[in-house]
Each structure stands twice: as structure tokens, then as C-alpha cells.
Design brief:
Elements lengths: L2 H17 L5 E2 L4 E2 L2 H12 L1 H16 L20 H20 L6 H28 L3 H8 L4 H21 L14
Antiparallel strand pairs: 1-2
Helix pairs in contact: 1-2, 1-3, 2-3, 2-4, 2-5, 2-7, 3-4, 4-5, 5-6, 5-7
GO molecular function: biotin transmembrane transporter activity
InterPro entries: BioY
Membrane topology: Multi-pass membrane protein
Length: 187
């Protein structure tokens, strides 16, 4: 991995930590935070591999106890709580968002950015987070879905739009994801 790649990974892990300074809004067992915006941006701007690594690094910082979650949370205990599934999904969400972004790179626009962020930043996070929430709190899947996903959809939609607009503008001004190289064929 190049030094530049390491810097990008560290930068987006730090960005996600800074987004944790935005006060969380408690709407039940899972708070609304700005940190999933960092997840979406990491995948959309860095691509699959570096986006995954940025959020994996962030989770390492959480695990060692740094207060990088809203309200100063951190430590191994959060990985046994109701939000554990959401947190553990973040690197995979960034990877999926990044993979879709890379796949659509030649025709990447706002529509593709929105699709990538909805699939990675919302669907992947909920697909892991809601079942873990149900398991940890002993809830039925329906109750877990209504308490662990439904209240967050409007906020997540806003974050999707913000991440998508930023990603499209970054692609135009300073693309971090490299264009796929075409194979050279002999005449």
C-alpha cells in the first residue's frame, strides 16, 4: 500500500471520528448519528479497499477505547451492545459503496452515487445492524426493524444526498479512485 493510500485511510477514519462529535439524537436503543455519513463518503471517495480499511481502522480506534463514538463512547463493550451490528457493518458498507462506485466509474454521476450510497450505506448497515439489535435485545424481527431502521430512514436519506453530491464533486475536482486501466493488446 502506498503512503498516499495510508493517508487517505487515516483521513477518512479521522473524518468518521469527527462526525461523532455531532451530538447524537436518541430515538430508542440506537442513536441517530452523523457517522454513517463518514461510512458513505469513505466508500464513495476512496473506493472499496481503502473505504473498508478506513472504517476498519475506525473500529480499531473504538475497540482500544478512544472516545470516538457520539457521547465519548468507545471500548470493547460497544461490540456487545445493541449497536454492535451497525458498527461491525460499517467497513463492509464502505466496501460495497466503493465497489459500486468503482464499477460505475466510467459513467459515475449523481444517480449512480445515490444508488451506491443507498445500497452500501443503508441496506448493508441495516442488514447487519437490525438482526444483531433483535438478538441482543431479544426483539422480534418486526420490532427490531421498526425501532432499528424506520426512525432513521429520513436522516439516512439526507446523508445519502450529501455523500452523493460530495462524491460527484470530488470525482470531478480531485478523483481519488484511479480510472481502470485498459489492457494493452498486441497488434
Amino acid at each position: 500500500m502506498k503512503t498516499r493510500d495510508l493517508a487517505y485511510v487515516a483521513l477518512f477514519a479521522a473524518l468518521t471520528a469527527v462526525l461523532g462529535l455531532v451530538p447524537a439524537i436518541n430515538v430508542g436503543p440506537v442513536p441517530i448519528t452523523a457517522q454513517t455519513l463518514g461510512v458513505m463518503l469513505a466508500g464513495s471517495v476512496l473506493g472499496a479497499r481503502r473505504g473498508f480499511l478506513a472504517l476498519a481502522l475506525f473500529l480499531v480506534l473504538v475497540a482500544v477505547g478512544l472516545p470516538v463514538l457520539p457521547g465519548g463512547g468507545g471500548g470493547l463493550a460497544v461490540f456487545a451492545g445493541p449497536t454492535a451490528g451497525y458498527l461491525l457493518a460499517w467497513p463492509f458498507a464502505a466496501a460495497v459503496t466503493g465497489a459500486i462506485t468503482e464499477w460505475t466509474w466510467g459513467r459515475y454521476n449523481l444517480a449512480w452515487a445515490v444508488l451506491a450510497n443507498v445500497v452500501g450505506g443503508i441496506l448493508v448497515v441495516y442488514a447487519v445492524g437490525v438482526p444483531v439489535l433483535a438478538l441482543v435485545l431479544d426483539l422480534s424481527p418486526g420490532v427490531a426493524l421498526s425501532t432499528g431502521a424506520a426512525p432513521f430512514l429520513v436522516g439516512d436519506a439526507v446523508k445519502v444526498v450529501i455523500a452523493s453530491v460530495v462524491a460527484v464533486q470530488v470525482r470531478r475536482a480531485y478523483p481519488v479512485i484511479e480510472r481502470p486501466r485498459r489492457a494493452v493488446t498486441a497488434p
